[in-house]
Amino acid sequence: MNASLFRFSIYIAAICGLYLATAMLIPAIVDLYYGHSDWQIFALCSFMVGGLSLMTAMATRCPPPVFTKRLGFLLVNLLWTVFSVVGALPILFSGQVTGFAQALFESVSAVTTTGSTVMAGLDHMPPGLLVWRSLLQWLGGIGIVALGLFVLPFLRVGGMSFFKMESSDIADKPFARLASFTRAFFAIYLGITLLCTIAYDFAGMSHFDAINHALTTVATGGFSTHDASFAYFRSGLLLWVSTFFMTVCSLPFSILIVFIVRGRLDALRDPQIGVFIAYLGVFSVATAVYNHLMNGVEFASALTHSFFNFSSVLSTTGFASQDYTLWGPFVVMAAFFATFMGGCSGSTAGGIKSHRFVILANIVMIGLRKLIYPNAVYSVRYGSQTVDADTQRTVFLFFSAYLFLWVVGSLAMSAFGYDLLTSTSSVITALSNVGPGVGEIVGPAGNFSTLNEPALYVLSLLMLLGRLEVLTVLVLLMPMFWRT
Questions:
Q1: Per-residue pLDDT tens over the stretch 288-319
Q2: How far apart are the C-alpha atoms of 76 and 421, rounded to whole Å?
Q3: What is the structure's pLDDT at 423?
Q4: Widest CA span in the chain
Q5: Are residues 317 and 245 in contact, defined by beta-carbon separation less than 8 angstroms?
């Protein structure tokens, strides 16, 4: 590979490091406001990261090379790795974790908007640290790579192509110019965050809790300021508010932009939206009925908690209002399979995503028809569009790689001494960026702090793989990628 690509990639990573160094001043200000001494940790980390990033940017500054897919893949992986490591520094120096493995896990979980945590005693933690975790998730929800959208256009690099590598969004972009799309994207993201904050505040949260939970709800991240997550608030209204915003943020942002900016109702006819809403409704209603009949829970309450918790799982947010694994074996299995599914493409959600299920279902249906009429010619459709052979091949490749990583990761976790349920559930919840899994250790009432360091490193890698759509990372393992 050309050395100029490495130099340019490091240069962009250093510039984005300056953004993160600036963001560290926000929790420092929060700690100062509440009179907590941890502001010094964030101030020191900001100074260190900012200084190192500035020197690196000055040392590696160079004319931008011609944008290629190889450069895009390298940039995506480098940026997410750098931000995960840098984000871990304040967590490590705070003394709230036992070592770098836990700090890195917490940071990766935040940046990838997974929501798994190794930290306990959140109710009594420094406010600045709680804000830092929420802020990392909010930035991860945008896609920290999207920060490069403000840099790459000025360098005359294909920013939109770069953005597509980070996101699985297959919908047409609503604006021809990157700058217009970027402004609309950030305006709507900020607007939804503000609306969510106000809604939480009016529904009964404190100002501090409302801000933190809005940041992590819109990012579909799931970090809370309380160990009990939403069970702390004991409010059905808050659960429905959160359910609404988690669902909205599981939809494609490009379609939300078309709907909000241009008022086009037809944008909501995207097949993946209907599929996502359908399996959210089926899972939630079926679980509510089961909980009502088997456990005698009042149906209205059962429906509220079912919609909240399954919206949390399917949107890969990771909040919990109750330990739903205690509702019965049917709910445990439903939650386990829902962990694979995820939200829509081009959203802040993780998982396999509903557009792939739409395409795969069409491929299967055509395969069955071909068994009856072998000579007939059928085309795979996604709504009104024809899915080309390359996209079909990519969908199969993604499914295969996803299942392969789940199997290999589960075997690795079992080799570290964990039982079948913990191994399989922790791996899929990391790969899908969901947060809590099922079982006593990694379930909604559990905590990842008891996992050993090798397990934490494996799960951290899987979270990054899941967030970057698997193939974006695996392509770096190909020898031909590194050939000049």
A1: 999 999 999 999 999 999 999 999 999 999 89
A2: 32
A3: 94
A4: 76
A5: no
